[in-house]
Amino acid sequence: MRKNRRNKNGLTKTQTIALSFLLIILVGAGLLMLPIASRTGTPTDFLTALFTATSASCVTGLVVVDTYTHWSTFGQMVIITLIQIGGLGVITMAVLFAILFKKNITLKSRNLLQESINSLQLGGIVRLIRKVIKGTLLIEGLGAVCLMFHFIPKLGVPKGIYYSVFHAISAFCNAGFDLMGYREQYSSFVYEVDSIMLNVPIMLLIIIGGIGFVVWDDISANKHHFRKYQFSTKLVISTTAILIFGGAVLFYVLEADNVLADLSVKGKILASFFGSVTARTAGFNTVDTAAMKDSSILLTEILMFIGGSPGSTAGGIKTTTIAVIVIYVLSNLKQTKGANVFGRCLSDETIKKSITVFMLNLSLAIIAAIAICALQKLPMRDVLFEVFSANGTVGMTTGITRDLSDISRIIIILLMYAGRIGSMTFALVFAEGKMTPKVQLPKVDVSVG
After folding, report:
1. CA dihedral in degrees (115, 119, 120, 123; nearest 10)?
2. Phi-psi category of residue 316: left, alpha or beta, with phi > 0 → left and psi -120 to 50 → alpha
3. Straight-line distance from the first to the last Cα atom of the chain, in angstroms, rounded to the nearest whole number
4. What are the φ and ψ backbone dihedral angles of 345, each rounded to 5 degrees?
5. Quick one: pLDDT band at residue 242, thresholds 50, 70, 90?
6. 46-60, 96-110, 167-181, 330-344: least confidently modelled range
């Protein structure tokens, strides 16, 4: 594990990243409280503004007020700016401005960048960030152009372009915020379930944004030569493909006689793939989430819990984490020497970190669910879905977000924050700096299983 030295202000890298997100959230909340940010011209209360700013900065998508009907154009611009900053990372955006103003990138900034995008190497980190920024603008731009073919015929040129850009950024950053409230509040893309011109670009943007910046760099360097990819890239691509196609097939089978029943074959296929893709961790929906079967709700929770890949715009425990745990469990069942995959053996440190991340996220979700259920009389099914959505920075909901009490909303805010900066980072913010014993205690065997 990389060392996490303190800077001259007494903050470690993880604490600096956590604090930078907190500052952006507070600034965003302040802007959203301004009268100009709401359609009615009246100030928005602090908790609603804080919830929205956190959801946008942490690229989640859970909302307590409809984005289209409550927020003015100014408010929507604040939200999409927070999404872009949160998606790329505050440190990355700070380095972008340093590059634009031709400032030197210090070693401290390079270390923060390395931590921010989960890169294993410090060398070439600024070059990678340049590529990330250019790639982001290119992909979001292409996505917006594709979406214009859907929105301009429906909304006209000015509004169609605005909607296309907004949703392209929101989708690429896996944020889940939408402006479809002009049709019905909180409806997301339910009315566009069979639209290829909307579904396909949105899904591609979500996938590309969720595979990770380091993976981009590897693929761009080695093109379609899978054997030349780095080990982590192979693991990300393989796991992502399994989750997308496996999730789509399961969703189709489980919901064929339910929310998919009245759709055309095209609509069923699109909805199944969209349901699989958006759950990791975009937050849009093309079918009524509340009407889904319990089995589909559980499937979606699993996908939300896993999320996207390291160093991406997505949340969750990450594809590599679940892949490492599955490989480790299978190797134990087969009684093989070491957890082996793609001609390599996973290190003990990687396995321990994966199990730690898994347990931290699961514990946070369960504790939050118990707390909310103790505070309010809400169905456990809906509460669990809400907390997994918040912790995985997904943004999908069965509709209870607006029914949450003030304390429950604060719990969800903390979950979104922890989910974006990472559960490990969230824990280290409070744990770092404490003395650890240098002497290893005697080992002991315990009966398990």
Report:
1. -100
2. left
3. 29
4. -110, 125
5. very high
6. 96-110
